[in-house]
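Memo to structure team: turn this sequence into structure tokens by end of day. - J.P.
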Amino acid sequence: MKKLLGIIAVAMLMVVGAQAQVILNQNFNSFTNGNLVGQGTWVQTGTTATSPVQVAGGAVGPTVQGSAQDVSISLSSPVTSGSFYYGVDFSFTSKNASSDYFLHIANTNAGTGFSSRLYAQSSGLGFALAWGGSSTAPTAFGAELAFNTTYRAVMRYDIVSGLANDTGALYITTGAFDSVEANNTTYQNVTTWAFGTEQTAFGAFNIRQGTNTGVYTIDNVLVGTTFASAAIPEPSTYALLGLGLGALWILRRKKPAAKA
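Reply from structure team:
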């Protein structure tokens, strides 16, 4: 009994510790259908307010393909060194041939210093994605992906000391990622910087409606400092606590009665 209790306690501490590496967690489940801005701590980026980003059925996305409202949300703590990751569930309905980015990280909610950009362009009967570091668009895209299919993407950005040498990687799956980054196959690995000016601070996650971003939805946004913290959506701390307490209650009920 004591051994089982110890295992449960250690497991709960490990999960809570992993959650401490998460610096943004947005699943939109508690949001009402309608404009995203004004719900939670989401704000508009820039001055364009036309065709607001919408919440619909616990996910969010643009209403048109074209330049329209962009939105952002602050991370719980800015990242200035090491690596950071963001993960999203996403699905594209349509995408034209021109490449454009639809998600990125900014210095702040003010909308400056766009980095770790996720680009999309049409490819065959579907579309393809690419990792973009900053203002210069990537020229190489990954394998073709299918429209109307839900994928999970994880973008890694490595802050490397020096100029024009940051690196990163992009992971895509229709299933579940392994929590160990090395056990997953990269969709695109970037080892050479060719993306304009590097940024030094990363403090906000952005959803973008650009001229050629396409029509898409996203859900289960996670930003963290480890691969697992962005790759695997987890229940809230309170839900985990409830599960742990429930397990303890079951074990106590199964404890044999003391002998007379």
